[in-house]
Amino acid sequence: MVYETIAFALFALITVGCSLGVVLARDVWHSALLLGGALLSVAVHYVMLQAEFLAAMQILVYVGGVLILITFAVMLTRTNPEVNST
Amino acid sequence: MVPAQWYLMLSAAIFCIGLFGILTRRNALLFLMSVELMLNAANVNFIAFSLQWGNVTGQTFALFTMALAAAEVAIGIGIILVLYRNFRDTDVTKATTMRW
Amino acid sequence: MTDGPDAGSNLLPGLAAVGLFLVMVLAFAGASFPAPQGFGGDANVTASIGYAMFDIGNLGDVGAEGFLAAFLIVAIVLDVAIDGAVFLAKREEGGSVVTALTDGGRDLLDRSREGPNAPRSERGRDAPRREGGDE
After folding, report:
1. Could you tell me the residue ranges of all domains in chain B?
2. How many CB pairs under 8 A join A and C?
3. Is the ipTM reported for this complex over the cut 0.90?
4. Which of A72, A82, B53, B78 has the most crowded Cβ, counting Cβ within 10 A?
C-alpha cells in the first residue's frame, strides 16, 4: 500500500512537472517532447488503476499518433525562433 | 488503490495547467497541446472512478474520448497548417483578417 | 512564435488557473468516498470493455452500460474528421488539387516575395511552376 502511494506521488510529480513544462517552455518543440512525457506518465497512472488496455491505447493513440502529428506540425510551421522572438 | 481524492486532485492540476496554457500562450500548437492535457485530465478521472465503482463504463468512455481527441488533433493540425500558410505564423493574435 | 511567459500579461490567467485549482482542491478534500470496489481478482477487464462497447449482452466479468450508439456516432465523427482534414489539406491551384502537406504550404509563400524581405524558397523547382501558371 505504501509503495503504491509512493509510486502515485512519483508519477503524479512527473505528470504535473511535464505538464507545467508544456505550457512554460519557450520552444514549441520542447513543449511537444514534454507533452510526450506527460502522456506516458498518465499511461503509467492507467496501469496503476488496472486499466492496462487503456494504457496501451493511450501510448498507441496519443504518443504514437497525436504526438507524431503535433511533431509534424511543429516542423512544418517552424520559423526561426532566434530571429523571430520579440 | 490510492484514494480517489488524490486522483481528483491530480486531474484538477493537469486541467488547470492546460487552462493556463490556453489562456497565456499565443501559439496555436500550444493550444492543441493544452487541449490534449485537459482531455487527459478528464480521462484520468474516468478511469479512477471506473476502478472506484468497479464498473468499466468509465474505461469505455475514456476510449471514446481518446478517439475524439485524435479526430480533434487531425482537424486542428489541418487548421494550423492552413493558418501558417495564410499568415506565415502560428500566432493566433496575428490572424485578424476577419476582425471588423 | 516563441511567446515565453512574460510576467505582466500572464498574471491574471495564472491567478485564474491557480484559483480554480484551489477551489477544486478544497472541494475534493471535503469529499468522501467509500472504499474502492475494484474489478475483482481475475476479472477480464479488456473483454468487458469490448462487450460494453458493442453492447453484447451481459457477458463481461465487470458490469457496464451499452455503448453501441456512442460507438457508431464516434465512427461517423472520425469519418468527418478524415474528410475535414483532407479538405483542409488540399489546395486548388490552377484547377488541379495539390497537397499542402508536401512543404507545409511553403511554396505558396513565395507568391509574396515581392514584399520587403520575404523568405524565398531555396529550391529551384518552385520557381518554374509559379511562372508556368496553369499546371
Report:
1. 4-87
2. 26
3. no
4. B78
- Rg of chain B in Å (alpha carbons): 17
pLDDT in tens, A8-25: 999 999 999 999 999 999
Is C45 near chain A, with CB under 8 Å? Answer: yes
CATH (residue range B4-87): 1.10.287.3510
Q: Output phi, psi for C92, to 5 deg.
A: -85, 125
DSSP 8-state secondary structure symbol assigned to residue A62: I
Distances (CA, A) of B84 to A29, B44, B75, C103: 16, 33, 14, 11
| Contact between chains at C38 and B51 (C-beta distance less than 8 A) | yes
> What's the CA angle centered on A32, arms A26 and B34, to 5 degrees?
85
- Residues near B48 by beta carbon (within 8 Å), at least 6 away in sequence: A49, B4, B7, B8, B11, B58
Using a CB-CB distance cutoff of 8 angstroms, which residues of chain C are in contact with residue A77?
104
Q: With an 8 Å Cβ cutoff, is C108 touching chain A?
A: no
The C-alpha cell of A13 is what?
A: 510529480
Please name the residues in contact with A45: beta carbons below 8 A apart, sequence gap of 6 or more: A8, A11, A12, A15, B7, B10, B44, B47
A50: nearest Cα among B43, C39, B58: C39
DSSP letters for C83-125: HHHHHHHEEEETTEEEESTTTTTHHHHGGGTTSSSPPPPS-TT
The label of the residue with cell 512564435 reads: C1
Q: In terms of residue numbers, what domain contains A10?
A: 2-80
Provide the domain count of chain A: 1
Query: CATH number for the domain including A45?
Result: 1.20.120.1200
